[in-house]
């Protein structure tokens, strides 16, 4: 019987295993060095914040794996011997495969800062990071201040987590405004305000110079590059982005760039070896997307796709329209399509912000054809299905505004804001768009 071995029990590896099982009787083994069972990395913050127990982050009961004949092996793969189809483990044993799926995820970036390996200096990625956080920052008696380095989605999550335990946080952000390489200036400014309003000591345009040790090899302070200021702290969170975790393919013939290079079928350059999820890098980016996408749902889609290919239904990875979501303290964020930090030449923008500075929408559209290109929603939830359809059917900005009632989840939103949004657009553009009533059946029965 063909043996499929998967390195990594994250969303990508586990989805591949589940779908291979649905489609075949092949022998399946998932290997992980991190945890016995699959857990949801995105929910780690809620464990620290006390909303969930760690067990609740495990979407499948422990019996699920045996029942579905998916073998789980705990161990760290040191080397892939592709010539002999064998994995060699750090623990000394080995495992043969017929086909191998590499789904080893990401690891936090460390830029060679002096002191980055000290105790109390960590990323927020693994189960062990969560355990270390409990050790070094369980409360504000043991951790009198934390410093977070790097203003992205994980940095702001860590700030919220520490804040929930009343630990003072200094947040060093290299950019002049939060996440402004991704967000347009309006949204970025709104999130700056949100961070500050939560009492976080936000330091924009500041970099870490070094981390200073106490006599026990534990962090005691950091020094800021630009000002030379020394800030005492008991925890340093390194959240300056992540990179593909490709240690396992070092010293092998598997082609790498920043990640493990794959074609549209998620095949590496070595027959019978595939790579999926955060660790995979497309030879050529798909449309406007990045060649490496470290997001949950693309890992899941790659897992489903590779399972088909392995089970003799070779299909290309086609991720569809870009979307993403996150949370910045109390403000939920969703994006559908493309709203770049800076508009491209053919783009026009429409921006509306509520006076509370907690809600906004930002729409990008083509100034010649009026085609809708993308939307950012903050503090407002919009329907994925609606925007997927709008993007596929290349609807106009006018169509989107007319049908805002179909786009959003929240009946209150209609009452409160839709008229105001459309009126603002009409004034700015000398148009006369009229809001249509909600028409779910008409839109989605087709
Ligand atoms: C705190 C946090 C919040 C996030 N929030 C969001 C979000 O809101 N939305 C979103 O879309 N994405 C979010 N992400 C990103 C998302 O979690 C990742 O894109 C996703 O988990 C990647 O899944 P994966 O299966 O590719 O890899 P991973 O989940 O990283 O799994 C890889 C596994 O492989 C194991 N492994 C690696 N090398 C070896 C080896 N040599 N031997 C054995 N095992 C090995 C690792 O230990 C790990 O268990 C978040 C990430 C973090 C850390």
Helix and strand layout, with pairings?
Layout: E1 3-7, H1 11-23, E2 27-32, H2 44-48, H3 64-67, E3 70-74, E4 77-81, E5 86-89, E6 94-96, E7 99-102, E8 106-108, E9 121-122, H4 127-136, E10 146-149, H5 153-164, E11 169-173, H6 185-197, E12 201-204, E13 208-213, E14 219-224, E15 230-232, E16 235-238, E17 242-244, E18 260-262, E19 273-275, E20 280-282, H7 296-310, E21 323-328, E22 331-337, E23 347-353, E24 360-366, E25 372-378, H8 384-392, H9 397-402, H10 404-407, H11 411-429, H12 440-444
Parallel strand pairs: 1-2, 1-7, 2-3, 7-19, 9-16, 10-11, 10-16, 11-12, 18-20
Antiparallel strand pairs: 4-5, 5-6, 8-17, 13-14, 14-15, 21-22, 22-25, 23-24, 24-25
Helix pairs in contact: 1-7
Bound molecules: flavin-adenine dinucleotide (FAD).
Any overview of this molecule?
- This protein is an alpha/beta fold.
- It is 26% helix and 26% strand.
- It contains twelve helices and 25 strands.
- It has helices at 11-23, 44-48, 64-67, 127-136, 153-164, 185-197, 296-310, 384-392, 397-402, 404-407, 411-429, 440-444, and strands at residues 3-7, 27-32, 70-74, 77-81, 86-89, 94-96, 99-102, 106-108, 121-122, 146-149, 169-173, 201-204, 208-213, 219-224, 230-232, 235-238, 242-244, 260-262, 273-275, 280-282, 323-328, 331-337, 347-353, 360-366, 372-378.
- Strands 3-2-1-7-19 form a five-stranded parallel sheet. The protein has a five-stranded parallel sheet with strand order 9-16-10-11-12, covered by helices on one side.
- Strand 21 (323-328) and strand 22 (331-337) form a beta hairpin.
- Helix 1 packs parallel to helix 7 (296-310).
- The two termini are 44 Å apart.
- The structure holds flavin-adenine dinucleotide (FAD).
- Residues 7-13, 31-34, 41-42, 44, 76-77, 103-106, 124-125, 154, 157, 245, 248, 277-278, 294-297, 299, 326 line the site of flavin-adenine dinucleotide.
């Amino acid at each position: 019987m063909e043996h499929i071995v998967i390195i990594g029990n994250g969303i990508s590896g586990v989805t591949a295993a589940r779908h291979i099982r649905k489609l075949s009787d092949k022998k399946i083994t998932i290997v992980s060095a991190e945890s016995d069972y699959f857990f949801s990395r995105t929910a780690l913050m809620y464990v620290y914040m006390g909303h969930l127990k760690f067990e609740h982050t495990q979407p499948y009961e422990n019996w699920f794996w045996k029942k579905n004949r998916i073998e789980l092996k705990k161990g760290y793969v040191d080397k892939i011997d592709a010539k002999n189809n064998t994995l060699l483990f750090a623990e000394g044993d080995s495992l043969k495969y017929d086909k191998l799926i590499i789904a080893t995820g990401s690891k936090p970036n460390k830029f060679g800062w002096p002191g980055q390996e000290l105790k109390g200096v960590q990323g927020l990625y693994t189960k062990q990071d969560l355990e270390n956080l409990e050790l070094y920052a369980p409360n504000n008696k043991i951790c009198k201040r934390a410093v977070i380095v790097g203003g992205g989605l994980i940095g702001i999550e860590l700030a919220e987590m520490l804040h929930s335990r009343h630990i003072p946080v200094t947040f060093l952000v290299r950019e002049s405004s939060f996440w402004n390489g991704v967000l347009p200036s309006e949204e970025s400014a709104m999130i700056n305000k949100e961070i500050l309003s939560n009492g976080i000591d936000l330091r924009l345009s500041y970099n870490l110079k070094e981390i200073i040790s106490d006599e026990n090899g534990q962090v005691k302070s950091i020094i800021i590059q630009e000002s030379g200021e020394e800030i005492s702290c008991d925890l340093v969170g390194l959240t300056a982005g992540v990179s593909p975790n490709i240690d396992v393919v070092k010293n092998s013939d598997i082609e790498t760039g920043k990640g493990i290079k794959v074609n549209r079928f998620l095949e590496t350059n070595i027959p019978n070896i595939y790579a999926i999820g955060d660790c995979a890098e497309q030879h050529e980016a798909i449309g406007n997307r990045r060649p490496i996408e470290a997001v949950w749902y693309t890992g899941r889609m790659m897992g489903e796709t590779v399972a088909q290919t392995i089970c003799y239904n070779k299909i290309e990875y086609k991720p569809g329209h870009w979307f993403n979501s996150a949370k910045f303290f109390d403000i939920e964020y969703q994006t559908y399509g493309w709203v770049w930090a800076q508009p491209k030449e053919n783009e026009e923008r429409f921006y509306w912000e509520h006076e509370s500075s907690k809600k906004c929408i930002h729409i990008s559209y083509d100034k010649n054809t009026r085609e809708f290109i993308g939307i950012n929603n903050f503090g407002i939830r919009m329907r994925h299905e609606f925007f997927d359809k709008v993007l596929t059917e290349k609807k106009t900005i006018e169509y989107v505004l007319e049908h805002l009632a179909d786009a959003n989840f929240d009946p209150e939103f209609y009452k409160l804001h839709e008229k105001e949004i459309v009126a603002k657009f009409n004034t700015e553009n000398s148009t006369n768009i009229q809001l249509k009533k909600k028409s779910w059946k008409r839109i989605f029965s087709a």
